[in-house]
């Protein structure tokens, strides 16, 4: 049967970059003979909230769970819905209910993109951040006591389970083992956070025994962040807990130019539930409706989705899905060098012109 893809554009520029993502996927499907089927949904958006008072219908799960992947634009329109309501009412539900315990972000510097770091050229920066996406510092365990008095206490626990640590660490080791440099950096803070972080380190050492071919180094999150800026060429795969990974996975793309390029994958590698592919950026109300958003993050996220559907992203990806992924990334490289460019890259092209140009290069 075809792969079923749920299409959720969301809000703002999500609705503008999604058609370009689909355009490129269609070109790739025609060229490589991919079997893809789409289901389009208008919910998981603030427009839907404005009509119904909720972000999604009650039976949202039944629409998505028999899909193989979710292709997601961006959600949020703070003028009508507070951000925590829109995010918790959609994206965060997907991550939790579908046990998408890996958040994966490539960090790559392309030719043709001005790098905010001095003296860096394409090829110098090319690594992955693997973030734990379901537990750790982002737990709901805690509470308040003596509220409103000067004895007020607020407590929030971190949760590190053996299963939770082992599965994200194993994913990261697996990913590193399949790359040329075979190197994994493990983010920690065991000098300051003296219970959970030594445990994380201990699990990393244990899982590492399964991957003798992968070299590792352990870095405290403070110096690790500094090195993202100072020596980004040293990294291959970086694995981190939920909070540290959240920070690193914004810092990484920030070091390589515009946010309009950065893709991400929220994965349930067990494939029990659909995984979700989305640009890192949000709905950008400041530029929405102008047809000037850069669609490349959306398009690259689509390429990651094809790789995953073809059982790659730490499995052995099959032709023709891997070929399609590689060809889309190559088309992105070409268009970034030769143009056209959207205004965030100093050009004058529209969102749809980038989608057209990329499709044309891809179809060749
Ligand atoms: P944002 O990523 O939407 O925008 C930040 C800045 O980057 C803006 O100046 C915007 O114009 C620019 N930008 C973003 N994407 C771009 C693109 N493709 N091309 C060119 N420029 C681009 O972040 P912001 O402003 O903090 O949030 C806006 C809304 O998006 C909020 O409602 C927020 O909650 C939501 N949001 C949703 C996310 C998601 O759906 N995963 C992620 C981040 C924010
Ligand atoms: Mg973040």
Automatic annotation (TrEMBL):
Its cofactor is Mg(2+); Mn(2+). Pfam families: Iso_dh. The keyword Manganese applies. The keyword Transmembrane helix does not apply. Keywords: Manganese, Metal-binding, NAD, Oxidoreductase. GO terms for molecular function: D-malate dehydrogenase (decarboxylating) (NAD+) activity; magnesium ion binding; NAD binding. Its EC number is 1.1.1.83. Residues 4-358 form the Isopropylmalate dehydrogenase-like domain. It catalyses: (R)-malate + NAD(+) = pyruvate + CO2 + NADH. It is an enzyme of class 1 (oxidoreductase). Belongs to the isocitrate and isopropylmalate dehydrogenases family. This is D-malate dehydrogenase (decarboxylating).
